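Record pair follows.
FIRST:
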Amino acid sequence: MEGLSQAEAFARIRLLRSPNVGPVSYRQLLHRFGAAEAALSALPDLIQRGGGGYRPAAEDRIAAEVQAVRTAGARYLFHDSPDYPPLLAEQDGAPPILTCRGDANLALRPCVAIVGARNASAAAVKLARMFAGELAEAGYVVVSGLARGIDGAAHQASLSGGTIGVIASGIDVAYPPEHADLQEVVASQGLLLAEQPPGTEPLARHFPSRNRIIAGIAAGTLIVEAAPKSGSLITARLAGEAGREVMAVPGSPLDSRSQGCNQLIRDGATLVQRTDDVIELLTGFQGQPRSILREVSAEWGVLPEQTEDPADIAGLLTTAPVAVDELVRQSGASAGAVQLALLELELGGRLVRHAGGRVSRA
């Protein structure tokens, strides 16, 4: 990106790949120390104070990753790059660094996510193609996860107008294998995004992370067909928590693949039956969705520059997630001191971050 030296870009990648550094702690470290190179220098001491025995990621490992990204024909997108997806950048837990292939400018256009069942019915696949094709003709970029069923149909129908595929693996790994050709077409004609380092095989824990990117990029998420407890419902919930439109296509109560969508509608998602319904909801979207399926997440401020000693809050943590403002109240320390203590505990491997800005003991 413009204004970012090669050394600082390398340091940012190394910082993010260091043990126990996640999106929140990464941003706090950058804010506190001003640059990734300075944060890396301070990291060993912070880790030690947090009770951990880890070291920052090795330089040769990061050099190998950078070479793998180049070999795959991809590049890095940093959180403050002008072509980083703007709606995604608004989210506190957004990936600080993505790898991409294709036209990153697609994410600057109005985007809508279409997701649904992998073992989708023929009728649902037909509907997904209809919605995706008509939305692409109307100027929207269709975002999905390149999975079987609804995802694949949405990508195929929107290729001519622009589509974004978000994968749970590294940028150089195709999953599912039967979508290898489709993934290549999306990368060459649209945009392919990955959060995981190159060479990473998709694991179960990677898919919710992938889903938060899909929900974060788009102004609204449309679920065409989904069974209860499916990954598509995770995407819908994340979209609601992000303050985006959540839309669902109703289905027969006799078909288990429709139960997820019907439940979403009961919970406040907007019922849609035609593409015009989606366009009406998304036209002029300004962050005030009409669907009410959302939870208010605790806001995470940046770690302030201060010299105050970190609060001793390790004893207040249990394995049950708790809101950070509750820790501030119980400890009597300032918000900045509590956040610094949490950062050190996370770097030491003693803290787990949860949705909604909550934390617990590891």
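SECOND:
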Amino acid sequence: MTAAVLTGHGGPDMLEIRSDWPVPEPGPRQVRVRVTAAAVNNTDIWTREGAYGSPEDPNAVSGWLGPIDCPRIQGGDVAGVVSALGPAAPAELLGRRVLVDPGLYRDGGDDTPPVGFLGSEIDGGFAEYVVVDADHVHDMTGSPLTDEQLACLPVAYGTATGMLERAGVRSGELLLVTGASGGVGLALVQMASARGAEVVAVTSPANADAVRESGAAHVLLRDAEDLAARVRALAPYGVDAVADVVGGPFLGMLLPEVRDDGRWVIAGAVGGRVVEFDLRRLYLHNITLIGSSMHTRAHFATLAGAARAGVLAPRIAARFPLTRLHDAQRAFAETRGAGKIVIGVAGRGDDARVG
């Protein structure tokens, strides 16, 4: 099969497009999914670069949870069709159009934290086929979303769901979203607005309209010198919560704009991974600082239900075939547009039970 194979940490040259990679075989309780669409995430690039650091050394070359075994097929966003079953997998899954939960969990509990990631600790969806546990596929037969739209959901919308759930964002609250034009940012805007929250979105001038169309009630420009003052003008008593996917100086700059007993949930560090802020603004105002990595099984089930109901509207910024994954990652790194970059994949279409 055709697959994009990561051979080690480093630059784009560490990613090889192979046409002779073995088709994976499902284990007893696994299924093989013929990938129809995937999508690019910052996680893919940071994993390739080994940019996650370690608790001992922020600059250490490392994957999300430590060293990555290579060769590895990346890609955490997968939509496709179940094309083969392990002997103990449910027979009704064969031929089903599915969305794949990319989380690898510590145990079978609904609220168990993830301990691994599709495309990081095991092979992912930048290939014609991927093998996953049967309980990680969600039937999308009745969803009005296209396969490309479905592929936009797992990482970005899953991460957004985890952030909103962990921060307890409710209807009527004022939520500030940083990095609002990216995949997770737009997902946060859409999903928080759907919950009835009033969203203040921080983005660039070029993406302001797209962010408004996604449901933001207020749009602020990220490069404004008086950004904190603008937030204060909208929320003189402080915002209820911040959903931050940028990190960097935003934390020190905007933490004073969170109300007493407010929440700051963070799931990214593209703006800077080592930050400085005034601890007094945190403890004197009883603000809760929440780290949120991915989602739980329960969070993803909620997301899958929304996908089946068609209440989500993922925005696609660009499309590339799998053989141009290098170009897709370059476009992702350089893009100033709103939405996700989607990878089209063509499988062979065979359906079978294995074993």
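COMMENT: The chain has two domains: 3-155+295-353, 159-291.
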